[in-house]
Write a structure and sequence with these properties.
It is a single chain. By secondary structure, the protein is α/β, with parallel strands linked by helices. Helix 3 packs across helix 4 and helix 5 packs parallel to helix 9. Bound molecules: flavin-adenine dinucleotide. Its cofactor is FAD. This is Electron transfer flavoprotein subunit alpha/FixB family protein.
Protein backbone atom coordinates (compact mmCIF):
# COMPACT_ATOMS: atom_id res chain seq x y z
CA UNK A 1 0.00 0.00 0.00
CA UNK A 2 1.44 3.40 -0.99
CA UNK A 3 0.56 7.04 -0.63
CA UNK A 4 0.20 8.18 -4.25
CA UNK A 5 1.47 11.59 -5.44
CA UNK A 6 0.86 13.26 -8.78
CA UNK A 7 4.12 14.81 -10.01
CA UNK A 8 4.17 17.85 -12.31
CA UNK A 9 7.00 18.76 -14.63
CA UNK A 10 7.80 21.40 -17.19
CA UNK A 11 10.52 21.67 -19.83
CA UNK A 12 12.23 18.50 -18.62
CA UNK A 13 12.33 19.39 -14.92
CA UNK A 14 10.12 18.43 -12.02
CA UNK A 15 8.40 21.43 -10.46
CA UNK A 16 9.59 22.39 -6.99
CA UNK A 17 6.06 22.13 -5.62
CA UNK A 18 5.93 18.47 -6.65
CA UNK A 19 8.97 17.76 -4.48
CA UNK A 20 6.99 19.41 -1.67
CA UNK A 21 4.07 17.06 -2.39
CA UNK A 22 6.35 14.01 -2.36
CA UNK A 23 7.94 15.11 0.94
CA UNK A 24 4.47 15.67 2.41
CA UNK A 25 3.40 12.19 1.24
CA UNK A 26 6.54 10.71 2.80
CA UNK A 27 5.58 12.19 6.19
CA UNK A 28 2.10 10.64 5.93
CA UNK A 29 3.55 7.31 4.81
CA UNK A 30 6.04 7.31 7.69
CA UNK A 31 3.21 7.62 10.20
CA UNK A 32 1.35 4.75 8.45
CA UNK A 33 4.37 2.52 7.94
CA UNK A 34 3.64 2.55 4.20
CA UNK A 35 5.57 3.89 1.20
CA UNK A 36 5.32 6.64 -1.42
CA UNK A 37 4.61 6.06 -5.10
CA UNK A 38 5.08 9.10 -7.32
CA UNK A 39 3.13 9.22 -10.58
CA UNK A 40 4.85 10.95 -13.51
CA UNK A 41 2.64 11.59 -16.51
CA UNK A 42 4.26 12.25 -19.88
CA UNK A 43 7.80 12.19 -21.22
CA UNK A 44 10.49 12.89 -18.64
CA UNK A 45 14.10 11.69 -18.45
CA UNK A 46 15.27 9.13 -15.89
CA UNK A 47 17.75 11.70 -14.60
CA UNK A 48 14.99 14.18 -13.78
CA UNK A 49 12.79 11.47 -12.28
CA UNK A 50 15.54 10.11 -10.04
CA UNK A 51 15.46 13.30 -7.91
CA UNK A 52 12.09 12.16 -6.51
CA UNK A 53 13.88 9.55 -4.41
CA UNK A 54 15.69 12.29 -2.50
CA UNK A 55 12.37 13.60 -1.20
CA UNK A 56 10.97 10.28 -0.07
CA UNK A 57 9.53 8.42 -3.07
CA UNK A 58 10.39 4.72 -3.06
CA UNK A 59 8.76 4.06 -6.38
CA UNK A 60 7.98 6.10 -9.48
CA UNK A 61 5.24 5.02 -11.86
CA UNK A 62 5.62 6.65 -15.25
CA UNK A 63 3.06 6.81 -18.04
CA UNK A 64 5.32 7.81 -20.94
CA UNK A 65 2.59 9.09 -23.24
CA UNK A 66 3.77 12.49 -24.55
CA UNK A 67 0.18 13.72 -24.78
CA UNK A 68 0.20 13.82 -20.97
CA UNK A 69 2.84 16.57 -20.98
CA UNK A 70 -0.19 18.89 -21.19
CA UNK A 71 -3.03 18.80 -18.70
CA UNK A 72 -5.91 16.57 -19.84
CA UNK A 73 -8.09 16.32 -16.75
CA UNK A 74 -9.92 13.16 -17.84
CA UNK A 75 -6.77 11.35 -18.94
CA UNK A 76 -4.98 12.38 -15.74
CA UNK A 77 -7.94 11.02 -13.75
CA UNK A 78 -7.81 7.69 -15.60
CA UNK A 79 -4.06 7.41 -14.99
CA UNK A 80 -4.37 8.25 -11.30
CA UNK A 81 -7.19 5.74 -10.82
CA UNK A 82 -5.10 3.04 -12.52
CA UNK A 83 -2.07 3.84 -10.34
CA UNK A 84 -4.16 4.06 -7.15
CA UNK A 85 -5.68 0.67 -7.84
CA UNK A 86 -2.29 -0.89 -8.55
CA UNK A 87 -0.79 0.57 -5.37
CA UNK A 88 -3.86 0.06 -3.15
CA UNK A 89 -3.53 3.76 -2.28
CA UNK A 90 -5.75 5.15 0.45
CA UNK A 91 -4.24 8.65 0.30
CA UNK A 92 -3.76 10.53 -2.99
CA UNK A 93 -1.93 13.86 -3.07
CA UNK A 94 -1.73 16.61 -5.68
CA UNK A 95 -0.69 20.22 -5.53
CA UNK A 96 -3.28 22.96 -5.02
CA UNK A 97 -2.79 24.53 -8.43
CA UNK A 98 -4.51 24.53 -11.82
CA UNK A 99 -3.78 20.83 -12.38
CA UNK A 100 -4.68 19.69 -8.87
CA UNK A 101 -7.87 21.72 -8.81
CA UNK A 102 -8.96 20.28 -12.16
CA UNK A 103 -8.15 16.67 -11.37
CA UNK A 104 -8.57 16.11 -7.61
CA UNK A 105 -12.39 16.48 -7.53
CA UNK A 106 -12.75 14.04 -10.44
CA UNK A 107 -10.56 11.47 -8.67
CA UNK A 108 -12.42 11.99 -5.39
CA UNK A 109 -15.83 11.45 -7.03
CA UNK A 110 -14.68 8.27 -8.78
CA UNK A 111 -13.25 6.83 -5.55
CA UNK A 112 -16.02 8.09 -3.28
CA UNK A 113 -13.24 9.82 -1.37
CA UNK A 114 -13.24 12.83 0.93
CA UNK A 115 -11.34 15.77 -0.57
CA UNK A 116 -9.31 18.37 1.33
CA UNK A 117 -8.40 21.22 -1.00
CA UNK A 118 -5.56 23.57 -0.07
CA UNK A 119 -4.14 21.61 2.88
CA UNK A 120 -1.85 23.59 5.20
CA UNK A 121 -0.89 20.82 7.61
CA UNK A 122 -0.15 17.15 7.88
CA UNK A 123 -3.11 15.06 9.02
CA UNK A 124 -3.47 14.97 12.80
CA UNK A 125 -3.93 11.27 13.49
CA UNK A 126 -4.78 11.91 17.15
CA UNK A 127 -7.95 13.58 15.85
CA UNK A 128 -8.84 11.03 13.19
CA UNK A 129 -7.43 12.46 9.97
CA UNK A 130 -7.76 16.20 10.65
CA UNK A 131 -6.14 18.70 8.30
CA UNK A 132 -5.89 22.49 8.56
CA UNK A 133 -6.93 24.57 5.55
CA UNK A 134 -7.67 28.21 4.84
CA UNK A 135 -11.28 29.34 4.25
CA UNK A 136 -13.04 32.63 3.45
CA UNK A 137 -10.14 33.84 1.30
CA UNK A 138 -7.61 33.18 4.04
CA UNK A 139 -9.50 35.09 6.76
CA UNK A 140 -10.03 31.95 8.81
CA UNK A 141 -8.81 28.38 9.14
CA UNK A 142 -10.92 25.23 9.12
CA UNK A 143 -9.88 21.88 10.57
CA UNK A 144 -11.50 19.15 8.50
CA UNK A 145 -11.64 15.54 9.58
CA UNK A 146 -11.72 13.14 6.62
CA UNK A 147 -13.60 9.99 7.51
CA UNK A 148 -13.80 8.27 4.11
CA UNK A 149 -11.70 5.18 3.42
CA UNK A 150 -9.83 6.87 0.56
CA UNK A 151 -8.66 10.46 0.98
CA UNK A 152 -7.65 13.00 -1.68
CA UNK A 153 -5.60 16.05 -0.66
CA UNK A 154 -4.40 19.07 -2.61
CA UNK A 155 -1.46 20.71 -0.84
CA UNK A 156 -0.84 24.47 -0.80
CA UNK A 157 2.52 25.25 -2.43
CA UNK A 158 5.29 26.66 -0.21
CA UNK A 159 3.72 25.28 2.96
CA UNK A 160 6.67 23.14 4.00
CA UNK A 161 10.42 23.71 3.74
CA UNK A 162 12.06 21.22 1.39
CA UNK A 163 14.85 19.05 2.74
CA UNK A 164 16.75 16.49 0.71
CA UNK A 165 17.88 13.13 2.02
CA UNK A 166 19.60 10.09 0.56
CA UNK A 167 17.08 7.98 -1.22
CA UNK A 168 16.54 6.18 -4.48
CA UNK A 169 13.31 5.43 -6.25
CA UNK A 170 12.71 2.55 -8.63
CA UNK A 171 11.09 3.52 -11.93
CA UNK A 172 8.31 1.44 -13.44
CA UNK A 173 6.35 2.02 -16.62
CA UNK A 174 2.60 1.98 -15.99
CA UNK A 175 0.24 0.86 -18.75
CA UNK A 176 -3.04 2.78 -18.77
CA UNK A 177 -6.08 2.10 -20.98
CA UNK A 178 -7.37 5.53 -21.87
CA UNK A 179 -10.99 5.95 -22.95
CA UNK A 180 -12.11 7.65 -26.19
CA UNK A 181 -13.01 10.87 -24.34
CA UNK A 182 -9.87 11.12 -22.23
CA UNK A 183 -8.07 13.39 -24.69
CA UNK A 184 -11.06 15.53 -25.65
CA UNK A 185 -9.04 18.75 -25.86
CA UNK A 186 -6.23 19.47 -28.29
CA UNK A 187 -3.55 21.89 -27.15
CA UNK A 188 -2.52 23.77 -30.28
CA UNK A 189 -0.10 26.29 -28.90
CA UNK A 190 1.47 27.12 -25.56
CA UNK A 191 2.76 30.64 -24.97
CA UNK A 192 5.28 30.46 -22.17
CA UNK A 193 6.45 33.42 -20.14
CA UNK A 194 10.21 33.42 -20.72
CA UNK A 195 13.15 34.77 -18.76
CA UNK A 196 11.25 35.46 -15.54
CA UNK A 197 10.98 33.73 -12.17
CA UNK A 198 7.69 31.80 -12.15
CA UNK A 199 5.31 33.67 -9.84
CA UNK A 200 3.53 30.58 -8.49
CA UNK A 201 6.79 29.02 -7.35
CA UNK A 202 8.74 32.13 -6.41
CA UNK A 203 10.29 32.41 -2.96
CA UNK A 204 10.58 36.20 -3.31
CA UNK A 205 7.98 38.46 -4.93
CA UNK A 206 7.99 42.21 -5.60
CA UNK A 207 4.47 43.43 -6.30
CA UNK A 208 3.10 46.79 -7.39
CA UNK A 209 -0.23 48.55 -7.16
CA UNK A 210 -1.84 51.73 -8.40
CA UNK A 211 0.57 53.70 -6.23
CA UNK A 212 3.15 53.17 -8.99
CA UNK A 213 1.12 55.71 -11.00
CA UNK A 214 1.56 54.06 -14.41
CA UNK A 215 3.32 51.38 -16.46
CA UNK A 216 6.19 53.78 -17.19
CA UNK A 217 7.36 53.32 -13.57
CA UNK A 218 7.32 49.53 -13.63
CA UNK A 219 11.03 49.40 -14.36
CA UNK A 220 11.51 50.28 -10.67
CA UNK A 221 9.67 47.09 -9.63
CA UNK A 222 11.54 45.02 -12.23
CA UNK A 223 14.94 46.40 -11.19
CA UNK A 224 14.39 45.45 -7.55
CA UNK A 225 13.00 42.03 -8.55
CA UNK A 226 16.01 41.39 -10.76
CA UNK A 227 18.48 42.26 -7.99
CA UNK A 228 16.66 39.96 -5.56
CA UNK A 229 16.00 37.15 -8.06
CA UNK A 230 12.30 37.68 -7.37
CA UNK A 231 9.14 37.30 -9.45
CA UNK A 232 6.92 40.32 -10.11
CA UNK A 233 3.22 40.56 -9.28
CA UNK A 234 0.54 43.25 -9.20
CA UNK A 235 -2.86 44.21 -7.84
CA UNK A 236 -5.98 43.67 -9.91
CA UNK A 237 -6.58 47.29 -11.03
CA UNK A 238 -3.05 47.32 -12.41
CA UNK A 239 -3.75 44.25 -14.55
CA UNK A 240 -7.22 45.56 -15.49
CA UNK A 241 -5.59 48.79 -16.72
CA UNK A 242 -3.16 46.66 -18.80
CA UNK A 243 -0.13 48.09 -17.00
CA UNK A 244 0.82 44.48 -16.37
CA UNK A 245 -0.27 41.10 -17.82
CA UNK A 246 -3.14 39.32 -16.09
CA UNK A 247 -1.06 36.32 -15.02
CA UNK A 248 0.70 38.65 -12.54
CA UNK A 249 -2.49 39.64 -10.75
CA UNK A 250 -2.76 38.14 -7.28
CA UNK A 251 -5.71 38.07 -4.92
CA UNK A 252 -9.19 36.65 -4.61
CA UNK A 253 -9.76 36.72 -8.35
CA UNK A 254 -6.12 36.16 -9.31
CA UNK A 255 -3.34 33.85 -8.18
CA UNK A 256 -2.70 32.70 -4.62
CA UNK A 257 0.96 32.77 -3.63
CA UNK A 258 2.87 31.90 -0.45
CA UNK A 259 6.41 33.21 -0.97
CA UNK A 260 8.96 33.60 1.81
CA UNK A 261 9.02 37.35 1.13
CA UNK A 262 6.30 39.53 -0.42
CA UNK A 263 7.16 43.19 -0.98
CA UNK A 264 3.97 45.19 -1.60
CA UNK A 265 4.64 48.56 -3.20
CA UNK A 266 1.88 51.16 -3.54
CA UNK A 267 -0.84 48.61 -2.81
CA UNK A 268 -3.57 49.59 -0.35
CA UNK A 269 -4.10 46.10 1.11
CA UNK A 270 -7.77 45.52 0.28
CA UNK A 271 -9.10 42.23 1.60
CA UNK A 272 -9.48 40.90 -1.95
CA UNK A 273 -5.76 41.48 -2.54
CA UNK A 274 -4.73 40.04 0.83
CA UNK A 275 -6.68 36.86 0.03
CA UNK A 276 -4.00 35.93 -2.47
CA UNK A 277 -0.91 36.85 -0.47
CA UNK A 278 -1.61 36.59 3.24
CA UNK A 279 0.04 33.16 3.39
CA UNK A 280 3.40 34.83 2.64
CA UNK A 281 5.95 34.16 5.38
CA UNK A 282 7.17 37.80 5.56
CA UNK A 283 5.39 40.85 4.15
CA UNK A 284 7.09 44.21 3.59
CA UNK A 285 4.82 47.16 2.81
CA UNK A 286 5.89 50.37 1.07
CA UNK A 287 3.12 52.96 1.01
CA UNK A 288 2.98 56.72 1.33
CA UNK A 289 -0.19 56.55 3.46
CA UNK A 290 0.59 55.47 7.05
CA UNK A 291 -3.08 54.48 7.42
CA UNK A 292 -3.00 52.03 4.47
CA UNK A 293 -4.61 48.75 5.64
CA UNK A 294 -1.69 46.70 4.29
CA UNK A 295 0.47 47.87 7.21
CA UNK A 296 -1.75 45.81 9.57
CA UNK A 297 -0.99 42.64 7.58
CA UNK A 298 2.71 43.42 7.08
CA UNK A 299 5.71 42.42 9.18
CA UNK A 300 7.76 45.45 8.13
CA UNK A 301 6.68 48.77 6.68
CA UNK A 302 8.17 51.84 5.05
CA UNK A 303 6.04 54.99 4.88
CA UNK A 304 7.06 57.06 1.89
CA UNK A 305 6.94 57.63 -1.84
CA UNK A 306 7.60 54.37 -3.70
CA UNK A 307 9.14 56.24 -6.61
CA UNK A 308 11.87 57.51 -4.28
CA UNK A 309 12.23 54.42 -2.07
CA UNK A 310 12.48 51.76 -4.78
CA UNK A 311 15.69 53.07 -6.45
CA UNK A 312 17.32 53.43 -3.02
CA UNK A 313 16.28 49.93 -2.00
CA UNK A 314 17.56 48.46 -5.26
CA UNK A 315 20.88 50.27 -4.87
CA UNK A 316 21.17 48.95 -1.31
CA UNK A 317 20.47 45.36 -2.43
CA UNK A 318 23.08 45.75 -5.21
CA UNK A 319 25.75 46.36 -2.56
CA UNK A 320 25.26 42.86 -1.08
P1 LIG B 1 -5.53 51.51 -4.62
O1 LIG B 1 -6.62 51.01 -3.77
O2 LIG B 1 -5.81 52.70 -5.48
O3 LIG B 1 -4.30 51.80 -3.67
C1 LIG B 1 -3.13 52.41 -4.08
C2 LIG B 1 -2.24 52.55 -2.85
O4 LIG B 1 -1.02 53.14 -3.25
C3 LIG B 1 -2.81 53.43 -1.74
O5 LIG B 1 -2.73 52.74 -0.51
C4 LIG B 1 -1.92 54.66 -1.75
O6 LIG B 1 -1.73 55.20 -0.45
C5 LIG B 1 -0.64 54.10 -2.28
N1 LIG B 1 0.18 55.10 -2.99
C6 LIG B 1 -0.22 56.05 -3.87
N2 LIG B 1 0.84 56.73 -4.34
C7 LIG B 1 1.93 56.18 -3.75
C8 LIG B 1 3.32 56.44 -3.85
N3 LIG B 1 3.81 57.38 -4.65
N4 LIG B 1 4.14 55.70 -3.09
C9 LIG B 1 3.68 54.72 -2.27
N5 LIG B 1 2.38 54.43 -2.15
C10 LIG B 1 1.52 55.15 -2.88
N6 LIG B 1 -7.74 43.37 -6.00
C11 LIG B 1 -6.61 42.66 -6.11
O7 LIG B 1 -5.49 43.19 -5.99
N7 LIG B 1 -6.67 41.31 -6.39
C12 LIG B 1 -7.85 40.66 -6.54
O8 LIG B 1 -7.85 39.46 -6.79
C13 LIG B 1 -9.06 41.41 -6.40
N8 LIG B 1 -10.26 40.80 -6.52
C14 LIG B 1 -11.39 41.53 -6.31
C15 LIG B 1 -12.63 40.88 -6.35
C16 LIG B 1 -13.78 41.58 -6.12
C17 LIG B 1 -15.09 40.87 -6.16
C18 LIG B 1 -13.71 42.98 -5.86
C19 LIG B 1 -14.96 43.76 -5.59
C20 LIG B 1 -12.51 43.63 -5.81
C21 LIG B 1 -11.32 42.92 -6.06
N9 LIG B 1 -10.07 43.53 -6.04
C22 LIG B 1 -8.94 42.79 -6.15
C23 LIG B 1 -9.93 45.01 -5.93
C24 LIG B 1 -9.63 45.45 -4.50
O9 LIG B 1 -10.82 45.62 -3.77
C25 LIG B 1 -8.87 46.79 -4.53
O10 LIG B 1 -9.64 47.74 -5.21
C26 LIG B 1 -7.50 46.71 -5.17
O11 LIG B 1 -6.74 45.67 -4.57
C27 LIG B 1 -6.76 48.02 -5.01
O12 LIG B 1 -5.58 48.00 -5.74
P2 LIG B 1 -4.39 48.95 -5.34
O13 LIG B 1 -4.08 48.75 -3.92
O14 LIG B 1 -3.32 48.74 -6.35
O15 LIG B 1 -4.98 50.40 -5.63
Amino acid sequence: MSVLVLVEHTEGDIKKKSFEAVQYAAEIAKADGSGVAALVLGALSEDAISALGEYGAQKVLQVSDARLNDLHARAYTTAILTAAQKEGSKVIIMMHDVNGRAVAPRVAVKLNAGLVSGALSLPDKAKGFTIKKAVFSGKAFAYVNVTSDVKVITLMPNTFQLSKADGKATIEQLQVSFGPKDFGVTVKEVNKVKGEVLLAEAELVVSGGRGLKGPENWGLIEDLAKELGAATACSRPVADAHWRPHHEHVGQTGGTIRPNLYIAVGISGAIQHLAGVNGSKTIVVINKDPEAPFFKAGNYGVVGDALEILPRLTAAVKKF
